[in-house]
Amino acid sequence: MEAKATQALVNELIETLKDGQKGYAEAMTDVEDAQLKDTFKKYAAQRASYITELEDQMFKLDLKPDEESSITGTVHRAWINLKGALTSKDNKSILSECERGEDYAKTAYQTALKAQDLPGTLKTVIEKQYQGVQEAHNNIRAMRDSAK
């Protein structure tokens, strides 16, 4: 894969992760349920560690992080609806909005994994992170389905 394309792909994942980290951090501070606070804190920290891993891969591959966000507003909108749900303090609504953000993250990772000729170590990191994103999505969905 051409370096410029790899760079764009990784920057896209980083922006998606930053958006998720911010969304979970906002949810964590505004939600009242202790279990949800812990869950959101865990996923905000997970996203922060994923960002660091990807940035480390970029450094090793001599790729440049994006100084400006090249990502569309879709991700931001996926998490922006969280504000309305947080205002209502309805756990099911909050979890639904978090799941929407997770849906976008899953799609971003699936797209990245379809890329041809990714450097081996980078592909391994992306695959591992995708498993974590998938697990987070499934957990958030299960919590949403069991919320009152």
Characterization of the model:
With 148 residues, the chain is mostly helical. Helix content is 82%, strand content 0%. The chain has 5 helices and no strands. Helix 2 runs antiparallel to helix 5 and helix 3 packs antiparallel against helix 4. It starts with a helix and ends with a helix. The model has no long low-confidence stretch (mean pLDDT 87).
Q: What features would you highlight for this structure?
A:
148 residues, mainly alpha, 5 helices, 82% helix
Work out the helicity level: over 70%
Let me know the average pLDDT: 87
Note the overall shape. elongated
Write down how many β-strands occur, each being a DSSP E stretch of 2 or more residues.
0
Beta-strand residue fraction: under 5%
Query: H/E element string?
Result: HHHHH
Largest sheet: none
Count of DSSP H/I helices? 5
As a whole number of angstroms, the C-alpha radius of gyration is 16 Å
- Give start-end ranges of low-pLDDT stretches: none
How far apart the termini lie comes to: 47 Å
Structural class by sheet pairing and helices: mainly alpha
Q: What's the short version?
A:
The protein has five helices and no strands.
Topology:
Elements: H1 3-30, H2 34-60, H3 73-88, H4 91-114, H5 120-146
Helix pairs in contact: 1-2, 1-3, 1-4, 2-5, 3-4, 4-5
